[in-house]
Design a protein that fits this description.
By secondary structure, this protein is an alpha+beta fold. The chain has one domain: Hypothetical Cytosolic Protein, Chain: A, CATH 3.30.1230.10. The chain has helices spanning 53-61, 64-69, 75-86; strands at 8-10, 17-19, 23-28, 34-37, 45-50. Strands 4-3-5 form a 3-stranded antiparallel beta sheet. Helix 1 packs antiparallel against helix 3. The longest helix has 12 residues, at 75-86.
Length: 103
């Protein structure tokens, strides 16, 4: 049985390629609103970050997210993303298991 293709994306902060499911997508919608895309399917320009607090801090502090999303983050957007990043674990990125119907 052939192996299933697993899409990979690169964290904009640490530049490490990882399976798409292990990263968090931040999206700038066509109307300019910046939000976290839990599903990975919202329309707009997206950027991916690891599930590590260090990557979120670097992405915001060094304005990496601003460049990746091609916009200037507002203070409110920056605050919301900082709060979300603070909930992420520190250290090595956390692998997220994909739940399936069969064990």
């Amino acid at each position: 049985m052939p192996l299933r293709h697993i899409p990979e994306r690169t964290c904009v902060a640490c530049r490490s390629p990882r399976p798409k499911r292990e990263l968090v997508r931040v999206v700038r919608a066509p109307d300019g609103v910046v939000s976290i895309d839990e599903t990975g399917k919202k329309s707009g320009r997206g950027a991916y970050l690891c599930r590590r607090a260090e990557c979120w801090q670097a992405g915001l502090r060094r304005r990496i997210l601003d460049r990746a999303l091609k916009t200037e983050l507002s203070a409110a957007d920056r605050e919301a993303l900082t709060a979300f990043g603070a909930t992420q674990p520190t250290g090595e990125p956390v692998a997220v298991r994909e739940e399936r119907g069969t064990p």
